[in-house]
Amino acid sequence: MIVNSNDILIKAKKNKIAIPHFNINNLEWTKYILEECNNNNSPVILGVSEGAIKYMGGTKTVANLVKSLDEELKIKVPVVIHLDHGSSVEMCKQAIDDGFTSVMIDASLYSLEENIKMTKKVVEYAEKYSVSVEAELGHIGDTNYTDVDEAIRFVKETNIDSLAPAIGTVHGVYKSKPNLDIELCSKLSKDISIPLVLHGGSGLDNLALKKVIKAGICKVNINTELQIVWSNAVKKFLLENGTAYDPRKIISSGEKAIKKVIRNKISVLSSN
Ligand code: G3H
Ligand code: ZN
């Protein structure tokens, strides 16, 4: 069932749990994620970066791929087709026009005024199509943590559906122990009524995940961790099967590893 993010995130906030957001890169990953989330009865947000969209052939191809797999695999859980880190108003509009049900406008590197202006434009457009909008304030990955007063103003003026705050996570592999500002996260969650979403979820241990969820996070984004376990499994397969050449066997040698991570994340995120 293809949906936007709103209902599932609001429900998650109420139940103090988090919905997994897994990034997709190709048909196989999309299939593995859908199958495993369905088997574990978990709603899922399929995040697609601009790079992945380009790699997979464009927004229309991605949206149609997810819709077709959802139908043919008879997926029963809610599935969101989400543009991850949309870098411009135009990119968000294109994803909406081509069938995405949720978009993130990431204008976090612009000034607050410009971020508000760009985000508002996306919200106004998305509303007409019942597409949910996520935006980022502060900048994830550096020392520009989200300011609570700015966040209150940002949410009020833009009317976004969910906010990605900067609370100390980073994208990619952590080079040192993550330094999360749980207090800031709790404060934001108390002062802002919409769901908070966490970027840079790979590499956080279960205890850290539990802590951020308790502090109000309703969605956790995971990309790098899937990439690492998949590529390790494929490398091992190729080392052990040097003569392999069937792409289906090579690519799917990472399936079990991806599905294991998905299962573990669902079990941590879906209970409190
Ligand atoms: O937007 C995508 C996620 O924030 C990915 O984070 O690099 O920790 O998997 P990650
Ligand atoms: Zn991110």
Characterise this structure.
- With 272 residues, the protein is of the alpha/beta class.
- The protein is built from twelve helices and eight strands.
- It has an eight-stranded parallel sheet with strand order 6-5-4-3-2-1-8-7.
- The chain binds glyceraldehyde-3-phosphate and zinc ion.
- The site of zinc ion (ZN) has 4 residues, from loops.
Number of strands: 8
Separation of the first and last Cα atoms = 25 Å
**Assembly state of the chains shown:** single chain
Low-confidence stretches: none
Concise structural overview:
The chain is α/β, with parallel strands linked by helices and 272 residues long.
What order do the helices and strands come in, and which of them pair?
Layout: H1 6-15, E1 19-23, H2 27-39, E2 44-49, H3 50-56, H4 59-72, E3 79-86, H5 89-97, E4 102-105, H6 112-127, E5 132-137, H7 148-158, E6 162-165, H8 182-191, E7 196-198, H9 206-214, E8 217-222, H10 224-240, H11 247-252, H12 255-269
Parallel strand pairs: 1-2, 1-8, 2-3, 3-4, 4-5, 5-6, 7-8
Zinc ion is lined by residues 85, 171, 199, 221.
Features of the shown structure:
272 residues, binds zinc ion, alpha/beta, binds glyceraldehyde-3-phosphate, 8-stranded parallel beta sheet, 12 helices
